[in-house]
């Protein structure tokens, strides 16, 4: 966000009153200068444009200039916006082509570093305009097909996005119903301050979009339910695209007045518009209490700013990623009551788990593969702590953000290694994926203290994983290949015939979820 001071008092303000300046950002902050283009659309743009304007202008966030293009069949030769006068251009336009000179002007604006936001049916526009399709990444209708590029979908079983070049048209939606949006990258500025999942009010859930998908990053998806006429796929809903030096935010939300009253639409539009304009997001976080996955929250666009301002309530407030998790911080929840295995279930293998003297005790079973006692609940971003005491000679671990395959319940995903010294304790291993060690460099082999309980501290946030044993940091890496959500699992390793039995004990298992 830019700040503006009158030249005669600038030096004085900086030298003597900087604290006052930053205490009154709402007064001194310069609003984004936004150009909102409409004029043709198969949707009721006369009704939705005022809501887009109100959403962006709420709380003094932006100053919006609305420019209405000539109507269908009208002469467009004089439609020549001066795009460079604005921080960002927002399109609520889906209609006939502009003049070639206007197209070239817009291409130069975005590629030169300008911001662009495509709202809902704006991605139906200009199917033959190559540069525009590269800007939006994916589009629908208008005769688009496999020649225009792939379908892009999130595959839940593979935990990754795939590109499908099979034949077929571009663009589809089922009935307008509320749907859950799932954040696929919570480290991006647009989504970093949002819950991991949240509901959008009844809206058109676009599916089968296809296009160049160059330099495109999908931030959030939604499942297009066949029961309501959907594709049965996890379809992209929020995307960013880098076009030259410019930034593009593409949202498929916002079919009509009712859809634009959804907080999911309003919040992501504001955050995406600021990112497209500046590359950053200064808006405060939005809590799951205000925008969660139980009910689809809604409000008036003019009051959109009131949904923000929850950063002080977020569990991430005050987290220092240069330090180990603070066990005195608020928000820690016990996952083990010291008396029972309530909240846990066993997957794979035949190792036995019992509760003894306030600890969960896992005992090896000869001939069994690796066994896992898994949390009933999945977790995304979190800090985890536990104490563990493993028999000398036994290899164990704690799974985080893990999944299980249907056949046999085989558990796979990141594992925090537990092993008596000398060993790889504290490093990350990718269980049952074929990837082997996630932590490639392993200089510390003696952090684990044998024959006693060791305190582990683990942080998983976005793609970043950190592990401490006691006060010694062992792992601090980024791993985009691991899933961003999954269960926890206490592993009892399989053993060779004629060895064992061995035991591993866990106690004081606590978790603190982060947004």
Strand order of the largest sheet: 2-1-3-4-11-10-9-7-8
Query: What is the general shape?
Result: elongated
- Look at the structure and give the mean pLDDT: 90
Count the beta strands: 26
Secondary structure class reads: alpha+beta
What distance separates the N and C termini? Answer: 23 Å
- Report the β-strand fraction as a percent range: 25-35%
Helix content: 10-25%
Question: Helical stretch count?
Answer: 8
Instruction: Round the Cα radius of gyration to an integer and report it.
Output: 26 Å
Low-confidence stretches: 1-28, 310-318
Describe what you observe in this structure.
The protein is α+β, with helices and mostly antiparallel strands. Helices cover 14% and strands 32% of the residues. It is built from eight helices and 26 strands. It has a nine-stranded mixed beta sheet with strand order 2-1-3-4-11-10-9-7-8, sandwiched between helices. Strands 12, 14, 15, 17, 22, 23, 24 and 26 form an eight-stranded antiparallel beta sheet that branches. A seven-stranded antiparallel beta sheet has the order 13-16-25-18-19-20-21, with no helix packed on it. The protein is elongated.
């Amino acid at each position: 966000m830019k700040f503006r001071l009158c030249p005669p008092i600038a030096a004085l303000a900086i030298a003597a009153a900087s604290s006052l300046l930053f205490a009154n950002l709402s007064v001194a902050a310069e609003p984004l200068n936004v150009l909102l283009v409409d004029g043709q659309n198969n949707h009721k743009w006369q009704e939705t444009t005022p809501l887009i304007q109100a959403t962006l202008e709420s709380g003094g966030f932006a100053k919006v200039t609305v420019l209405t293009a000539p109507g269908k069949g009208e002469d467009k030769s004089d439609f020549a916006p001066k795009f460079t006068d604005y921080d960002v251009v927002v399109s609520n336009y889906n209609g006939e082509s502009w003049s070639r000179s206007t197209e070239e002007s817009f291409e130069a604006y975005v590629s030169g570093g300008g911001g662009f936001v495509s709202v809902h049916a704006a991605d139906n526009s200009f199917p033959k305009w190559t540069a525009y399709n590269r800007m939006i990444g994916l589009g629908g209708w208008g005769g688009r097909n496999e020649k225009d590029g792939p379908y892009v979908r999130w595959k839940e079983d593979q935990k990754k996005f795939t590109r499908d070049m099979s034949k077929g048209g571009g663009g589809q939606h089922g009935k307008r119903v509320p749907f859950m949006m799932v954040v696929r990258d919570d480290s991006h500025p647009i989504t970093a301050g949002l819950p991991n999942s949240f509901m959008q009010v009844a809206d058109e859930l676009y599916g089968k979009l296809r296009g160049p998908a160059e330099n495109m990053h999908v931030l959030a998806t939604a499942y297009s339910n066949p029961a309501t006429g959907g594709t049965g796929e996890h379809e992209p809903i929020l995307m960013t695209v880098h076009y030259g030096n410019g930034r593009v935010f593409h949202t498929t939300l916002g079919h009509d007045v009712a859809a634009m009253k959804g907080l999911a639409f309003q919040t992501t539009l504001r955050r995406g518009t600021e990112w497209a304009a500046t590359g950053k997001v200064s808006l405060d976080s939005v809590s799951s209490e205000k925008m969660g996955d139980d009910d689809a929250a809604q409000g008036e666009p003019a009051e959109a700013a009131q949904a923000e301002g929850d950063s002080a309530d977020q569990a991430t407030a005050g987290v220092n990623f240069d330090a180990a998790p603070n066990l005195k911080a608020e928000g820690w929840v016990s996952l083990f009551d010291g008396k029972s295995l309530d909240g846990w279930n066993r997957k794979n293998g035949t190792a036995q788990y019992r509760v003894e003297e306030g600890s969960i005790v896992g005992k090896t079973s000869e001939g069994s593969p690796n066994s896992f006692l898994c949390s009933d609940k999945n977790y995304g971003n979190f800090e985890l702590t536990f104490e563990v005491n493993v028999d000398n000679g036994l290899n164990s671990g704690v799974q985080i953000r893990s999944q299980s395959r249907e056949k046999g319940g085989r558990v796979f995903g990141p594992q925090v290694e537990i092993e008596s010294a000398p060993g790889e304790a504290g490093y990350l291993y990718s269980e049952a994926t074929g990837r082997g060690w996630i932590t490639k460099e392993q200089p510390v082999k003696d952090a684990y203290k044998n024959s006693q309980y060791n305190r582990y501290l683990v942080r998983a946030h976005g793609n970043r994983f950190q592990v401490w044993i006691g006060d010694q940091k062992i792992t601090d890496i980024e791993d985009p290949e691991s899933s961003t959500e999954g269960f926890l699992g206490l592993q009892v390793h399989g053993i060779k015939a004629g060895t064992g039995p061995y035991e591993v004990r866990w106690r004081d298992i606590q978790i603190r979820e982060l947004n």
